[in-house]
Amino acid sequence: MTIALILYIFLAIVLMVKLLLYGVRPTKTLAWLLAVFTIPIGGMLFYFILGRNKKKNKFYKLKETKDIKEYLKKN
Q: What total number of domains does the chain contain?
């Protein structure tokens, strides 16, 4: 039980730091933090299943094409 609690606290702190550093919108970040700390295991599971930005990750996985290079030059 003690090891599980220590592991949960460690994961919650890591997730909290990640959300605070890379959170896009403050309201979304606060909502995820509340979910993680009020629903101990379920909040983390919900975040790992639903909370990550999959579109952003998919964009970075695309091969660099001429269109992507042009888009990146414009912005």
A: 1
